[in-house]
């Protein structure tokens, strides 16, 4: 993911590590915590917030999602066939009393390939959540009265 992220323009000094900032944004989206309450391990909250705001405005999050989905699709890791019929949609396995054991290993696939597929799926889910949050934020900003400075 690193090569897809913007680089510093050099005017403001060296940027904080992208991984740390992205993890901070994902933590904030996942937990709903206020920006000011981000744990210190993600760096200064203002840095995380500003980078999230900047990347939301310039389309970086959406570009990342598209690129990662394209790479996963090219590798055959995404199954785009979706069929939903309200008469056959099952409850989530947590709601249905299913076992809490991990799913059985995929036959014919190595454990490393299975882990890689899970990592891709998790990353795509997280990026999709970031894009949804950006769209919700943009919708709220568009509907709010203009601020005076």
Automatic annotation (TrEMBL):
Coiled coil: none annotated. Residues 1-64 form the Insertion element IS402-like domain. Pfam families: DUF4096. This is Transposase.
